[in-house]
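User: Second chain of the day. Same drill as before.
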Amino acid sequence: MKFKAKKLLVPPRQNSVCPDLEQQRLIDLTLYEQEARCRGFHCVAGIDEAGRGPLAGPVVAAACIIPHGIYFRGIDDSKKLSAKQREVLFSEITACCDVHYAFGVISPQEIDRVNIYQATILAMLQAVEGLKLVPDYLLVDGMALPHPVIPCEKIIKGDSKSQSIAAASIIAKVTRDRMMEEYDLLWPQYGFKQHKGYGTSKHMDAISAHGPTPIHRLTFAPLKQSSV
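Assistant: Same format as last time:
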């Protein structure tokens, strides 16, 4: 039976342009969390990752628990937000004392050893393990996470359907982007600050000119092909 949200006692923060639409959008973004609570779960965490596709850098996953009645205006899938919007929301989410979050980081060397899919699972499990508050239900963006104890629900495009997954996507993305900006200071000729390790033409030209760095994923094409 489809769960229908009831009017909440604690209203979301108002959107200055169209408060009613934003309020309803935020309520809709908590339907999966509310449905889990109606089924008897008390502590629901959203899980998402950043960095599965790049040729360089780690894969980062985040887990986030947002208590019932707390909303973040403008929150959405991190890919739909500008870098500035992500930074603002990251600050708001991580500064909220009622929100619990953690992230997991898997190195390029480990990605090469186990493959990117398994590395993503490891990062997600690491993020869940890092939470100070132990969740009893997990909402996972696009993956069937094999947690040994906690039940998980795979949600396709969950980062645009669940507030807790959207928050996790923002935390993972901003955390990884900051790491890539630090790598840019070590290897400025590769342009990591701009492309964050993705296979842009500038990045490919830098690899051709200078070869791979210690943070490149050597099992990813075309790096794998060039090393054969």
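Confidence is low (pLDDT under 50) at residues 1-18.

User: Great, on to the next one.
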